[in-house]
Amino acid sequence: MKQSQLFMPTLRELPSDAEVKSHQLLLKAGYIRPMAAGMFAYLPLAQRVLNKIEGIIREEMLAVNANEMSVPEILPAELWKRSGRYEAYGPELYKFQNRQKRDFILGPTHEETFTELMGSEIKSYKKLPLLVYQIQTKFRDENRPRFGLLRTREFIMKDAYSFSADQEGLDKAFRNMEAAYVKIFARIGLDYRIIVGDAGAMGGSDSKEFSAPAAAGEDTIVYSDATDYAANLEMAKDFYESKPFEGEEEPLEKFATPNEKTIDELAEKLDVPASSLAKTVVATNEAGQLVAIVTTGDFEVNLVKVQNFLNIGDLELADEGAVKAALGAGFGSLGPVGLPDDVTLLVDQRAADLGNFVAGANEDGQHYRNINWKRDVDLQDDQVGDFRLAREGDLAVDGKGKLNFTRGIEIAHIFKLGTRYSKVLGATVLDQNGRSVDMVMGSYGIGISRLLSAIAEQKGDDEGLVWPAAVAPFDVHIVPINLKDADQAKMTDTLEASLKSQGLDVLVDDRKERAGVKFADADLIGIPVRITVGKKAAEGVVEVKVRANHTNFEMRVSEIEDSISVLLRGEEN
């Protein structure tokens, strides 16, 4: 393609709201343009990258016998009301009515749609297992879209769904899809980690995230420095071996703490480590009921772990006024002794092993010392679990390494949904014994448009984008210095024809621009290999640049045809 005909509006000055590298580079290089907050136009260069990513995905989906199809982007709200997600999804759901006053939504994901469709079409286990997918625009009304394509209100996603007659079928589909994703991201050329993820509003029993380490990532990846253990911070676990208190119980005693509102202040007053104190955090569930979570003073409460333990949806920190009305004290004086019966008490494993410990007395400015669980609270085993946020440097859950933290971009997520949707939507089949059973489902997503930002974050440099060869908008960028020179013009045409005959995508910079402008734009848009046709064209010599490592060298044109595939493979490495 001739660059003079390519719609590629590059920028010299960046908008002030472009905060992260990928957003800046994709704007500056003319790949994307904002149309509204969190909504972008994908310009020709970006569209070519998206097409190549989607091509790789389609090939690997075909390899696992997945069927590509499409369902509507506009969905009847009734389906989501039946599944329980219409309200649970919250304000991120785009809701509207048609002229007949019927409720609809813009699809953020399509579990309900595919469940309803397959439930109406498949009636026998003999038609299962089945794997279907689509590549489609999704919609989520993010409260604060930011970081370019990393957090948007409209995005491109590959969503796949597996349907099986039993758990064994789901497990196999999950393994196959995980293996397919490994191949997809290896071919694209991204660095990533597979981590334990939170199923969140999706529901289900198990999930894994594919996360691309990058400074702009909004997720924290927690990983062991000695093993392959990795998890999202919300799900990460540390190693803890229970050591129940076996000392002699001291009498319960209330004492004044008028100036101690924090754990640090209390620890300083008592001259004890924070780990020996109990901290109580109160949260509110979807029904407005209070949940009190107790940890040792040196840890923070992990609300996601609490949600999963209780198998509930949204959970958020309670308002201090509501807490004081229910418990009789504000923050800083809360504790597990004497809680009302309608408050759910959960205790972290570490805190459950404390004895003769200090905690708030549920009276402002007052604490108890010498609290013991069985005597003063009657704590039961089913109230104890891992409710703490993992800390960097602690021992990993496998006991074989220290936990390290890094930022990451979630690029894919796979879920074992089980019968979460099939049960409520009535998607059943007759099994081999003629009994009606709920379909067992999995859900598998890749954030396709987000991949542009993930690649740009990982590969981009000070001069511009650096695309892995498999997804670059063009394979080779030919830059003639002066097309009025007959030798340069002839060599440019010869090179273009030769490279295209090998099946390569070629961009020729035929613009009437200075060499410096052409080189700067070439580095900015990030095509893997640049061939400069200059003064030595008459001698059959060109300059080759490998974009990834800035390697420049001269090469005879006669060698290009045999060497270009090697240069492109080197780019991928």
Automatic annotation (TrEMBL):
Protein name per its UniProtKB record: Proline--tRNA ligase
Tell me which family the UniProt entry assigns to this protein. Answer: Belongs to the class-II aminoacyl-tRNA synthetase family. ProS type 1 subfamily.
Q: What does this protein do?
A: Catalyzes the attachment of proline to tRNA(Pro) in a two-step reaction: proline is first activated by ATP to form Pro-AMP and then transferred to the acceptor end of tRNA(Pro). As ProRS can inadvertently accommodate and process non-cognate amino acids such as alanine and cysteine, to avoid such errors it has two additional distinct editing activities against alanine. One activity is designated as 'pretransfer' editing and involves the tRNA(Pro)-independent hydrolysis of activated Ala-AMP.
Subunit record text:
Homodimer.
- Which HAMAP family does this chain map to? Pro_tRNA_synth_type1 (MF_01569)
List the EC numbers from the record.
6.1.1.15
Its subcellular locations are: Cytoplasm
Q: Which Gene3D superfamilies match?
A: Anticodon-binding domain (3.40.50.800), Bira Bifunctional Protein, Domain 2 (3.30.930.10), YbaK/aminoacyl-tRNA synthetase-associated domain (3.90.960.10)
Molecular function as annotated in GO: proline-tRNA ligase activity
Give UniProt keywords alphabetically. Answer: Aminoacyl-tRNA synthetase, ATP-binding, Cytoplasm, Ligase, Nucleotide-binding, Protein biosynthesis
The text the record gives for the protein's domains is: Consists of three domains: the N-terminal catalytic domain, the editing domain and the C-terminal anticodon-binding domain.
**Reaction catalyzed:** tRNA(Pro) + L-proline + ATP = L-prolyl-tRNA(Pro) + AMP + diphosphate
**Superkingdom of the organism of origin:** Bacteria
Q: Which NCBIfam families match?
A: PRK09194.1, proS_fam_II
Q: Which organism is it from?
A: Eupransor demetentiae
Q: Record's InterPro entries? A: aa-tRNA-synt_IIb, aa-tRNA-synth_II, aa-tRNA-synth_II/BPL/LPL, Anticodon-bd, Anticodon-bd_dom_sf, Pro-tRNA-ligase_IIa, Pro-tRNA-synth_IIa_bac-type, Pro-tRNA-Synthase_IIa_type1
Give the Aminoacyl-transfer RNA synthetases class-II family profile domain ranges: 48-468
Alphabetical list of PANTHER family matching this protein = MITOCHONDRIAL RIBOSOME PROTEIN L39/PROLYL-TRNA LIGASE FAMILY MEMBER (PTHR42753), PROLINE--TRNA LIGASE (PTHR42753:SF2)
Main enzyme class: ligase
